[in-house]
Write a structure and sequence with these properties.
With 375 residues, the protein is an alpha/beta fold. The chain contains eleven helices and 14 strands. The radius of gyration is 26 Å and the shape is elongated.
């Protein structure tokens, strides 16, 4: 491709690493890339080089991306220039400001290289469209923007709900603990207080799952790795769930053959607890649930097995999606519990570089987690 025929992309970002990543990604696709480290430099490059598309960071010292976009729109050639905003602020207010400033698209950091290329290609194609096609595209884009705004509002609402509910749930757990410390408390009252505590912990885990699923969608679910004593962790989890298992008439068994692993202890605890609760929910009375931890060629495999109804082969991948119910011939089995537990497990395990799947137990199901032994 001759140099003159290659579309020119102007990247305006004060972060050198972001500029280098965008440059490498776009040059691999055959584009010419112009770089600017500030808003003022970006405007000067626009006037001197007449690029075909602009990638514009929102937060920059001095003139921010919104001001740069407004200035470019007022310059010759500016009104029709495709401008794609890049921002780490995934919120509806930033999105609306980007649209008001005249942005054509909105990408949140960290931007995946494939997504960046697709968005740039779409912007360049739009610039070449006829006026009639452009009108149709504007309609579709407005609909897309409305959907994006609803998604961002939903994420903000989720964050508010999780934040506001954590305090009362923690208070419920605290008061239940205070009751359990009362030595004069009767047996039935003690059992009720323990049940309240178990349900409060379960609800708190659900709230944290919601928060982490939102983080994963934004690329912000990053494990805080440390050395985890697996024997101590599994024993603690089994002890906490002993009362619930006893009430369901289910025996808990565990075997740990690996001393430790480098992992995020909070995420790993909630993965095992979600799988254990799922198993207890479906284990028949008089059966047992087994947790085993074994080494597996440079990795650690955690298996949680129950003797319940099992999971049909064709649904063993789909079960990790949100709010999925698995239907059997006898009854409807909600293997995802409240619809988010297994989704969280998949995202948390994959954030560690591992994998999760389901096997048949004959009878029942085995939920398997494989984590790399080293980060």
């Amino acid at each position: 491709m001759q140099n003159e025929a290659r579309p020119k992309i102007l990247v305006v970002d004060d972060n050198a690493q972001n500029r280098a990543l965008a440059q490498a990604t776009l040059e691999d696709e055959g584009y010419r890339v112009l770089l600017a480290a500030s808003g003022e430099e970006g405007i000067a490059k626009f006037e001197a080089e007449a690029p075909d598309c602009i990638l514009l960071d929102v937060r920059m010292p001095g003139m921010d991306g919104f001001a740069v976009c407004s200035r470019i729109r007022a310059l010759p050639g500016g009104p029709d220039m495709p401008i794609l905003f890049l921002t780490s602020s995934r919120d509806v207010d930033t999105f609306d400001r980007a649209l008001r400033a005249g942005g054509d698209d909105f990408l949140t950091k960290p931007v995946r290289p494939t997504e960046l290329v697709v968005r740039v290609q779409a912007a360049l194609k739009l610039r070449r469209m006829s006026a009639e096609l452009r009108e149709h595209y504007e309609l579709v884009r407005r609909q897309r923007d409305d959907l994006m705004r609803l998604q961002l509002q939903k994420e903000r609402l989720t964050a508010f709900v999780v934040h506001d509910l954590k305090n009362p749930v923690n208070a419920m757990d605290l008061y239940a603990q205070l009751l359990l410390r009362d030595r004069e408390l009767g047996t039935r009252a003690r059992e009720s207080a323990q049940r309240i505590r178990d349900e409060a912990r379960s609800l708190l885990r659900l709230l944290l799952n919601l928060l982490d699923i939102s983080k994963s969608e934004e690329g912000r679910l990053v494990p805080d790795r440390a050395e985890v004593d697996l024997e101590a962790l599994v024993t603690e989890i089994v002890t906490v769930h002993h009362v619930a298992a006893q009430a369901a008439g289910v025996a808990l068994r565990h075997s740990v053959e690996v001393p430790s692993i480098a992992a995020d202890v909070d995420l790993l605890r909630r993965v095992i607890e979600n799988l254990l609760e799922n198993a207890l929910r479906h284990a028949p009375e008089g059966s047992e649930v087994q947790i085993t931890v074994t080494p597996d060629e440079g990795a650690v495999e955690i298996r949680v097995a129950d003797a319940g109804s099992g999971v049909p082969l064709e649904l063993r991948e789909k079960i990790f999606e949100r709010f999925v119910q698995v239907e059997s011939s006898e009854r409807v089995v909600s293997r995802t519990g409240r619809g988010l537990g297994l989704t969280f497990c998949k995202l948390a395990v994959e954030a560690h570089g591992g994998s999760v799947w389901v096997e048949e137990a004959k009878p029942g199901a085995v939920f398997c987690v494989r984590l790399p032994d080293e980060p």
